[in-house]
Design goal:
CATH superfamily: Glucose-6-phosphate isomerase like protein, domain 1
Number of helices: 8
Shape: globular
CATH architecture: 3-Layer(aba) Sandwich
Strand order of the largest sheet: 2-1-3-4-5
Radius of gyration: 18 Å
CATH topology: Rossmann fold
Distance between the termini: 58 Å
Largest sheet: 5 strands, parallel
Order of helices and strands: HHEHEHHEHEHEH
CATH class: Alpha Beta
Number of strands: 5
Helix content: 55-70%
Length: 204
């Protein structure tokens, strides 16, 4: 068996270059959403400092983005600060599989939202399509509980943007939208931390 690395072809280079190029207009569209991200980050800081919690959910790669967000808030993003309550709804695999088995996959998030969400909480839903049934049910459950729903999706309008209280939509292919959503998550965390530091000081 040969262990020689195959030569990089012009075609392969073009594929990589085209993929990177495709994310650039999505990032440009995200730049225009900076005021929305600033508002979300400041609002989230106020809510969580007041004792509310963040819930987050997504499917597949968007689930990874949701878990990334909650990890930044429970842990830390830019510097030391207190921990905040943030729950990624796919993280409890026993609950996820039990609910899916008993009620159907479309209810795996909504059932948890009904259990955990309270007025003042925030539910962030990430999706490239904005059409996932389990996220739509979660949005409705959150609003019924008095929680605020924010959606990060691909091109809109779509069913999830309609079900949410506010939404950040981005044009482009699913993979590129998802890549830009990670930038959005980090921008949100950066604003959140700045607002917390302004309210409590940098080490609290």
């Amino acid at each position: 068996m040969s262990t020689t690395t195959p030569p990089i072809t012009t075609h392969a280079s073009r594929i990589a270059r085209d993929h990177v190029a495709a994310v650039l207009p999505v990032i440009e569209a995200l730049q225009a959403e900076a005021p929305r991200l600033a508002e979300w980050g400041a609002t989230l800081a106020t809510r969580l400092l007041g004792g509310a919690r963040l819930l987050a959910a997504g499917n597949g790669g968007s689930a990874a983005e949701a878990q990334h967000l909650t990890a930044e808030l429970v842990g830390r993003f830019d510097g030391d600060r207190r921990a905040f309550s943030a729950i990624c709804l796919h993280g409890d695999t026993s609950a996820l599989t039990a609910i899916g088995n008993d009620y159907g996959f479309e209810h795996v998030f909504a059932r948890q939202v009904t259990a955990h969400a309270a007025p003042g909480d925030v539910l962030i839903l990430l999706s490239t399509s904005g059409t996932s049934a389990n996220l739509l049910h979660a949005a409705r459950a959150a609003r019924a509980a008095g929680a605020t729903v924010w959606a990060l999706t691909g091109p809109g309008p779509n069913p999830l943007t309609i079900a949410a209280d506010d939404a950040l939509t981005l044009p482009g292919a699913g993979a590129n939208v998802q890549e830009a959503q990670l930038v959005a998550v980090h921008a949100l965390c950066r604003v959140f931390d700045a607002a917390v530091h302004a309210a409590l000081g940098p080490t609290r």
